[in-house]
Specification:
The chain has 183 residues and is an all-alpha fold. It has eight helices and two strands. The protein has two domains: 1-90, no CATH class; 91-183, no CATH class. 56% of the residues lie in helices and 2% in strands.
Amino acid sequence: MPIDLDRLTHPLRLARGSYHEGRGKGCAMNVISCINGDTKITDFPDCSARPLARMVQRCNDILAGSDGFLSPENSVLVLDLGYQTIGTAVVPDSLKWQWLHDILVDPDHGVVRHARPDGEAAIRRVAELCGRQARGDAVSDQEWREARTAADAAAAYAAYAATGAIQMCQIIRTHLRYEDVAL
């Protein structure tokens, strides 16, 4: 499918944050939204599972340089990752929750491998809640709030970001390919 880059504002540069018409910059998921043919450019295209789109956005923002823009190499990496989310919106929610669980605690590639010790418990708690959701168990808003508060207090995500967002992109890509059969 041809990409109408002029629709975004030519030339587009990948940058931290979301697309705003006329600024000539946006995140990788904004490009995917355009490729998908969405009438309104968004961070959450209809073709992509929201949790995966959110992770691509996170990688996009972490990889932005001090000027707010991504290098050409990192742009290609994040666009490739975003492109792999196309078609994931139609998978069952249980599979999306399982992806999130695995991305966090997979023994070989999980985010938890890169966390500081004070962040590991917080990441494992979030993964446990994702696993419960995957099985169809009810998780209360209060449990999610407590897990988020613990993760924020431990600075788990900031510590992970400092270890390298490229590894996070590779982790997500591994899990997307791992589940391709389910798509």
